[in-house]
Amino acid sequence: MSLNLTTANGLEPATNGLEPAINGKEAANLHDLSEPFVDNLAGQLFLNEAFKIIVEEIDPFSFMMRLFSFLSGHPRFFNQLFAGVDYHALAGRFLTEALNTNLYTYEVAPVFVLMELEVLRGLRQLVGWTEGDGLFCPGGSISNMYAMNLARYQLFPEVKSQGLWGLPRLTIFTSIESHYSVKKGAAFLGIGTDNIILVKVDDGGRMIPEDLDEKIKLAKSQGAVPLLVSCTAGTTVQGAFDPLDHIADVCEKHKLWMHVDAAWGGSVLFSKQHRHLMKGVERANSVAWNPHKMLTAGLQCSALLLQDTTNLLKKCHSANATYLFQQDKFYDVNLDLGDKSIQCSRKVDCVKLWLMWKAVGSSGLAKRVDRAFVHARYLVEQMKKREGFHLLHEVIPVCVCFHGQPEFVNVCFWFIPPSIRGKEGNKDYQDRLAKVAPVIKERMIKEGTMMVGYQPLGNKVNFFRMVVFSPLLSQKDMDFFLDEIERLGKDL
Ligand SMILES: *Cc1c(COP(=O)(O)O)cnc(C)c1O
User: Which residues, renumbered to this chain, carry the PTM N6-(pyridoxal phosphate)lysine (predicted)?
Assistant: First the structure.
């Protein structure tokens, strides 16, 4: 059986698939934002057929479902870091549900075990590792927790049997703009949220390696044992990429586990043009990557990737249950992946990615990533032409190095309603500005026209975070977005 992801008929081989070939016509296609990227019509027909079958089966609920659920597959759903539908992945999701099996043993999921291994191998290859380990986890948050647990086990293997009893105070370093799951992980694993040391970021939201170095030294001088640095590749709000190469130097110097939370940004690894954002990732010990975000593989699809070849994952988590993982089975019992996991039952999350990857190839996924950047740039250009849109990164001098563009596909901005335009000097300006985004959001939800997220950040009051990566998105939707924000906010 051949499950090689990278040599599907007619697709570019992707071993160096870090370098997908894009010819002139395709490149032009990439920049034509007037149409969605995937065949929306064919996909919609497929969806209608499938939905009809589902609705016929569960008719009493269908009315409620349509009324009370929202459609994350709609091109104007910009609320989260997942959006859009990939119809190949969707077919994989139907298949997974229909077959309803469990990834813990090879005997109940033979082909899926092999698929998971292949998909993980393919993802590791993009990171730059020819060997290693990994696991699909129920989300990036859990992947981040795994990394912490592995780092601790590597340093203090006795923790598995003895617990926290004999351990010194351990500390974890992460930037102040990292994802909140780092905090949750520290609480869950008994490390303690007070032992998360927040490292400063530059104006673009990237961790400052010099501050990291200082803080590690300080922690050591206070008798703590520095354990792990959790870097972020694509921060949740600003989309910033921590400078991995420099952080790797610091981790090497102090012998710390380097984890990269690339839940959001990991997909840039497909793109020849943009993978430089994660330069140095190959020096990490572990990487968390959510293909359910930018690649639209569907919730959920989240991989933990490890450089380790010493079977750390299994040593750290195994319980050797004899009723499930019998050692005298007739096949290679190393194919029973389940004991690497902290779970017993584990959902099959690899098929949807495998199928989509097979269908469009590494070069197809690369084009989607490239296209998302083109979308983000288009949006920024349009905002600059309109009065009332004020980009977050424009107030940040350092961003000149990105030619006035945001680093990733997160476009953060304030909408300044006419009533406060030009009144930045007023005492109540920030208070009034802070109230704008929540009201516009309430209005858009009640009218059902679109959905986009907002948040405050540090000393910056509520601003919108627009993310543009759905393959269903076209220029028309982005123009609509801008018009709609203006319409909903003009009287504020
Ligand atoms: C989304 C995200 C996570 C959390 O992933 P889940 O799959 O939602 O648990 C972690 N880190 C970053 C940077 C994220 O953007």
Answer: 293
Q: In DSSP terms, which residues pair with 77 in a beta bridge? A: 451
Give residue 441's identity as a one-letter amino acid code. K
Nearest alpha carbon, ligand 1 atom 3: 140
CATH of the domain at 392: 3.90.1150.170
Do residue 76 and residue 120 come from a single domain? no
Give me ligand 1 centre to Cα 81, in Å: 9
Distance 368 CA to ligand 1 centre (A): 20
Q: At what angle do helices 209-221 and 244-254 cross, to 10 degrees?
A: 20
Please state, in angstroms and rounded to a whole number, the distance separating the CA atoms of residues 322 and 336.
12
Work out whether strand 196-199 and strand 170-175 pair parallel, antiparallel, or are unpaired: parallel
Residue 117 in tokens: 């291994």
57 and 163 in one domain? no
pLDDT digits (tens, 9 = 90+) for 472-488: 888 999 999 999 999 99
Nearest to 260 by CA among 228, 287, 291, 229: 287
- Residue 144 CA to ligand 1 center (angstroms) comes to 9
Residues with CB under 6 A from ligand 1: 81, 139-141, 179, 181, 232, 236, 261, 263-264, 290, 302
* DSSP assigned state of 273: T
Close Cβ partners of 141 (under 8 Å, ≥ 6 residues apart): 179, 181, 184, 185
Summarize pLDDT for 237-265 with one digit per residue, the tens: 999 999 999 999 999 999 999 999 999 99
| Closest ligand 1 atom, residue 143 Cα | 9
